[in-house]
Amino acid sequence: MQLAGWQILDAATTQRKRLLRAGYLPIPTEGKKPVIGGWQNLVVQEDDIDGWFHQHPAAFNTGVLTRTTPAVDIDVYDPDVAQAIETMLWDMMGARGLVRFGEAPKRAALFRTEIPFGKISTPVFTSPIKQRHRVEVLCSGQQIVVLGTHPGTGKPYSWHGGEPGDVARADLPELTEAVARDVVAKAAAIMRAQGWIEDVARKTNGDDAYHGGGNVDEFDSIYGNSQRKYALAALQGCTAELSAMAPDSGRNDKLNAVAFRLGTMCARGWINRDDVESRLFAAAVACRLVADDGEAATRATLVSGLGGGQLKPHPDLTDETAPVPSNTPAPTVDLFWHGDPDTRPPHSWLAEKLIPGKGIGLMSGQWGACKTFAAFDLSASIASGMPFAGREIARPGGVLFVAAEGGDEVRTRLKGVEHKIRAAAFVASAAGNPIEADLNHLPLVWIEESVRFNTKAGSEQLLTIARTVHNQMLEKFGVPLVCIIIDTMMASVDFQDANSAAETQQVMNGLRGLSQKTGAFVLVVDHFGKNIEVGTKGSSNKEDASDLVLAMLADRDVGGSISNTRMKVRKLRNGKSGVEFPFNLVEVDLGDGETTCAIEWKPERDDTGKNTSGKGSWTKTLRIFRSAMETVVIERCRDLFPYGNDGPKVHAVTLEQVRTEFIASYPADNEDQRARDAVKRSAFNRAMRDARERLLICSREIEGVDYLWLVEETELDWLKRTGA
């Protein structure tokens, strides 16, 4: 029975919604041809799909944008060669995926990618019977029909291995640009081995108009003129860099800058503006700029940059500036002129004035100096927002912990940290500063295997893991990945010569690249050499290339027992070196005879050995506040048991009593009484806030009255000990 048009459209609407929910970006097509203008940059919602039913009554077929769902299109008419190319593909991928047939033996395989890239294609090959063959990888700016009827055969498209929608996009094998290039190169070699004639005139077999993006065929990057190659390399580098940017890393400014740069090349006709706009918008989608700023604002930035660049055409290429033909993307380089304002965001921190927001660092130390315990302590602090070593966490977020050694101990050690932060969270809550994080589900994830990140395969694997974690952090917790901790260097790198400066520099460059591509700070746990004064084991290039070097130190007796445990800042770009953070390693009873340890930080010391916290926490305004509290306590205190009868007793006074005494004591030099009152009220509110944030006071509402009390060491010790 032949279905009516409305029945086909109704079924297509259901299929398109299923595709969208499974992570694909569906579009309506007539045959192979998309029917929506500007479809390459479409952002699809379910409401849009409902509207297509009436807006496009002849669009019975359904395609998906290959922006993040690349397709290897084996446009080969010889069945044996087509099968050989598909077999090669699965051998390279290590797993089979979904394969679509429309006009056999031609076929297409579907994948996923986190970083969109341009279309990659073999040359067109002509076989002895005059058939034309080609293999393409469709990605940014293209689409592929997945459901409906093939316009040439009149038969429905069929799938082997599952069907999109039934199989979620997230479950497809991942195809990176590097692997895609290898696939295309090997496919070309297979066709070349048949003795087929290679057409270097870049003729097509007619599908470009339907797939889209024909003007950015990577075939040009090999056979085009030098200007075309230069522009394509620049486009590829710009899109790769933008795609990898993290939130709060200047994505909008970068989009404007790269659009301007490419606009200068559009003005010379080296590259098509529509192609540039499509690719850059796809990169903006990949880095979530469109999701955060909106499509209209993103397009406005894009158009502004391209338009500005087109007003300043790119100068002619000289022998020095013209690129050697290469598949490697050209990096973008920003120029900073003296006298111009710096539009970049200010230097950022994960932990205030201690852990940078981006870059690379080392946490090095002797054996048994609590390096891994400190690394877990930092992980939990960043994930929960609780202070680390007394320093506030400026950028809470997700943490990826690579446990290259001791992976089976991760859960146990984390229990010790959990016990500690629960007690600290209770203290903070008692002080009127409850934390927002769910301590039962922190944005903290780990892997229990080594990733050899000094190899190309290992580097790509770690980057893929990090980007996957970043996306899942955003989905699960609404926070980005901000820190990657690798424990340890020696378990993750196969050094040929650990003392080689050149080899070490390559390793550190790889780590910096990981930070730049993920927007996260990368900290590697490492060992000291035999002479602790020299520092980290191996080449000095490790510490030279690092933005931060934390030394985990301890005094050890002949029996192996340690004392005087401390963390010292050996190096900190944009910060102070020499500061020490003493700590105790305390035992935590987990019950059922199981124990672990956690770090208990003491007040930090400067390089002279003097405390930089403690009494120094009381500023002038806070000293007046404390004096007011002590005065009221002497005259009007009330003994309370805010933690129950088993908890410590505190000497509390009411908020209004303290406020009255503070205002009477605080000096305000102003003739106008109202102005003096305003100054005093502002000072009191500021003192209250600071005292609570520094855990100098606690508060509790009892019988409708707000009470305050000064926090004593005995109270803090009880809270930490009990985890109440």
Short overview:
It comes from Bradyrhizobium barranii subsp. apii. By secondary structure, the chain is of the alpha+beta class.
Largest sheet: 9 strands, mixed
CATH superfamily of the largest domain, please? P-loop containing nucleotide triphosphate hydrolases
Given as residue ranges, the uncertain stretches (5+ residues, pLDDT < 50) are 201-206, 214-224, 319-331
**Proportion of residues in extended strands:** 15-25%
For the termini, the CA-CA separation is 71 Å
CATH secondary-structure class of the largest domain:
Alpha Beta
Give the helix proportion (percent range).
Answer: 25-40%
Q: For the residues shown, what is the average pLDDT?
A: 82
Q: What count of structural domains?
A: 4
Q: Compute the gyration radius: what is it?
A: 31 Å
Oligomeric category:
single chain
How many E strands? 27
The outline comes out as elongated
- Judged by helices, strands and strand pairing, the structural class is alpha+beta
CATH topology of the largest domain: Rossmann fold
Number of helices: 20
CATH architecture of the largest domain: 3-Layer(aba) Sandwich
Arrangement of strands in the largest sheet: 17-16-18-19-15-20-21-22-23
Give structural notes.
With 724 residues, the chain is of the alpha+beta class. It has 4 domains: 5-220, no CATH class; 224-310, no CATH class; 349-610, Rossmann fold (3-Layer(aba) Sandwich), CATH 3.40.50.300; 618-722, Arc Repressor Mutant, subunit A, CATH 1.10.10. Helix content is 38%, strand content 20%. It is built from 20 helices and 27 strands. The strands form 5 sheets. Strands 17-16-18-19-15-20-21-22-23 form a 9-stranded mixed sheet. Strand 13 and strand 14 form a beta hairpin. Helix 7 runs antiparallel to helix 8 (251-267). The longest helix is centred in the middle third of the chain and has 22 residues, at 456-477. The radius of gyration is 31 Å and the shape is elongated. The relative contact order is 0.07. The model is unreliable at 201-206, 214-224 and 319-331 (pLDDT under 50).
